[in-house]
Amino acid sequence: MSGPAAGTASAATTTDVVCLGESMVTFLPSQPGRLADVPSFGRGIGGAESNVACALAAAGHRAAWVGRVGADGFGEHLVETIAGYGVDTAAVRRDPDRPTGIYFRTATDRGTDTHEVAYYRAGSAASAMSPANVPYEELFAGRILHLSGITAALSADCLALLRELTAARPGRPLVSFDVNHRPHLWRGGDADASVLLELARRSDLVFVGEDEAEEAWGIVG
Questions:
Q1: Helices and strands in the chain: count of H runs, count of E runs
Q2: Could you count the other beta carbons within 10 Å of the beta carbon of residue 214?
Q3: I want to staple 92 with a disulfide (CB 3.0 to 4.6 A). Which of 6, 31, 119, 207 is the partner?
Q4: What is the β-pairing status of strands 17-20 and 24-29?
Q5: 195-200 contact pairs (CB < 8 A, 24+)
């Protein structure tokens, strides 16, 4: 496996849920307004899968997060903050050649037309995850492996990884899959959101909203 582990202890076989995915540093505005007008930002963390791990750990479950971050200060902040919730981060790998993803957002509600988000994740360390560089022994160490459709959209290698992880094989844990359809991530890629249905069908537990099913697959509830 490539790269050293970022944490200090490996995910044990008693882990309840192992979550795989990209986490990013989030820059939160100091006041409402357009991104063009916001004078300063505070720092936080974001990531659908690591958020699940943090929530599970806070509720008393044994959770681990697996991902890749850059060998930079942002990656260090992510690992330390997520570990601070009681999440096992030992299987996180640091990429010396690619940065940790970051994004900026406005303070307005996400459901409004004035909400803005600016992502800087292209070429990130997490987008380089592939079947060749993730620690399978750590991913399969828990009772449940939690994935999301966001990872599938990051790159062809990430999609190949999710296909590998959702394939039926001896020793594979129960797979939980959150469709988490993000249309902007699929624009201009080699694949489209229809692969989310493929991954959902190969999973044991699927989370999908009616709006996602309609938008990604044309399924009307």
A1: 8, 11
A2: 13
A3: 6
A4: unpaired
A5: 195/152, 195/159, 196/149, 196/152, 198/163, 199/147, 199/149, 199/152, 199/162, 199/163, 199/166
Look up the pTM and report it. Answer: 0.87
Helix, strand, or coil (residue 39): coil
CB 82 within 8 A of CB 90: no
Q: H or E segment at 11?
A: none
Amino acid occupying residue 155: S
Q: What is the pLDDT of residues 43-70, one digit of tens each?
A: 999 999 999 999 999 999 999 999 999 9
Q: How many other C-beta atoms lie within 10 A of the C-beta of residue 169? A: 9
DSSP 67-84: -EEESSHHHHHHHHHHHH
